[in-house]
Amino acid sequence: MDLLLAIGAERPDLLLSGRTLRDQGVMVTGLLEAGWPVPLLRELIMRPLPDPLRRTVGAVISGRLEAAVAMPVPGSAVGATVPHQAPAMEPPGPGERRWEKGPTPGPARW
Questions:
Q1: Fewest C-beta in 10 Å: which of 19, 20, 37, 85?
Q2: What pLDDT shows up at residue 4?
C-alpha cells in the first residue's frame, strides 16, 4: 500500500483509497514478493491513463497489475532466453572418416 500511496501523492490522478487501495495493495505486495522490482512496478502503474477514461482509475490499475501477474517475473529464469547452441555437426565430407565407437583419435594417431 505504501507504494500506491506514494504514487498517489506524486500523481493525484492515480490516488486510490478505501477498499480499492487495500485490494490493489494486496496485488502489489504479491508482485513484490514474487520478485518484481519496485521501479518497474512504479513504471507500470504510472503509465498514462487512457483517454477517454471509461473505467475507474482503480479498475485501470487493477488491469495493469493483473497483466503483470500473468507475465513472468522480469529477470527470472522462466522468461530467460535459451543460450546460443552450437550448430549440429555436419555429416563427414568425401574422404573424411567418422568414428562410431571409442574415443576420437587425436592428430598423433592419424
A1: 85
A2: 92
pLDDT tens per residue across span 1-41: 999 999 999 999 999 999 999 999 999 999 999 999 999 99
- Cβ neighbors of 92 (< 8 A, separation 6 or more) are 98
Distance CA 93, CA 110 (A): 17
Give the type of residue at 48.
Answer: P
pTM here?
Answer: 0.64
Q: Would you list the DSSP string of the chain?
A: -HHHHHHHHH-GGG---HHHHHHHHHHHHHHHHHT--HHHHHHHHTSPPPSS--S-HHHHHHHHHHHHHHSPPTTSSTTPPPPP-PPPPPPP-TT-----SSPPP-GGG-
Say if residues 57 and 64 touch (Cβ distance below 8 Å). Answer: no
